[in-house]
Amino acid sequence: MSETENQNNGELGESGQEVAEGPRPLLIVDDDERFCERLGRAMERRGFEVTLANSVEQGALFARDLQPAYAVVDLRLKDGSGLEVVQALRDVREDARIIVLTGYGNIATAVAAVKVGATDYLPKPADADQVEAALLESGEALPPPPDLPMSADRVRWEHIQRVYEQCDRNVSETARRLRMHRRTLQRILAKYAPRN
Question: Is the pTM of this model over 0.70?
Answer without folding.
Answer: no
